Amino acid sequence: MAAFLAAWQRGAACSWQEAAGHELRFLPHPVPMLQLLPGAFSAFRLREALSRRFLSPDRYDGCHLSVTAEGAPLLLYLLNARDVPQDAIATLYSLADAE
Question: What is the pTM of this model?
């Protein structure tokens, strides 16, 4: 995680995969974006994430839910200059309800 955060702060694209199977990515271009590809993520958990996003729009402002070309869930956070990396990561994991 330390190498991931250091690369992010340099503005370099990077990814980090944790033991639980979640993959976290930072993409600096064309718009700075944090992506979370959660491990096992059922249709039920996707509905829950959509509900959390809908019920707490201020908390999840800038967050979006999508799918990859393979159909896997993808949670996105469009970043701005004021976002603190650890807070942005925590927000995205909270939306996914991932540990």
Answer: 0.86
